[in-house]
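User: Hi! I'm working on a homework problem where we have to compare a predicted structure to a textbook description. Could you give me the structure for the chain below?
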Amino acid sequence: MVAIAFVLSFIPLFKMPWGGTVTCFSTLPILLLSFRHGGRWGVFGAAVYGCLQALQGMDSVVAAQTLGAMVLCVLLDYFIAYACLGFAGPIAGRFSKPTLGLVAAITLTGLMRLGCSFLSGILIWGAYAPQGMPVWLYSLAYNAGWCLPDVGIVLVAAVLLSRVPIFHLLPESRTKPA
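Assistant: Happy to help. Predicted structure tokens:
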């Protein structure tokens, strides 16, 4: 799943000028890993994927300029942000209706990822904020500009896949009513 996600990450639909890309649902395989195998495997796979993404986005990491900022960039923008996707399985498992669990899990993990990028934008990338604009507002607007469409694409793809009778996103034990 990590390999499939990594290949899909090379299909950008839109790139922001200072980093952040809307891809062809590249995070969906990571979410599927978590849905099918639980939080431990999900977080592990997502963290590995985050490390690969850091290597792919090394130009953004180097742009952080200081060693401390580079480390913070790798942690917030890549490692922790993607590791959050691994919690999708446990989140979805809390719902009795599979589609609701799917939507909630993808939305919440997407918002966690946005939160990491938002924090990174404040701590590292605040210098890019237009003069007179609060750094927090700039970070929120910039990061929401790529993260929310990316989450939306994954959400639509996951819901459509969940409608295919032979394709089960969640393990059978989670899709049967309690």
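For your comparison, note the following. The longest helix spans residues 28-56. The chain has a mean pLDDT of 90. Good luck with the assignment!
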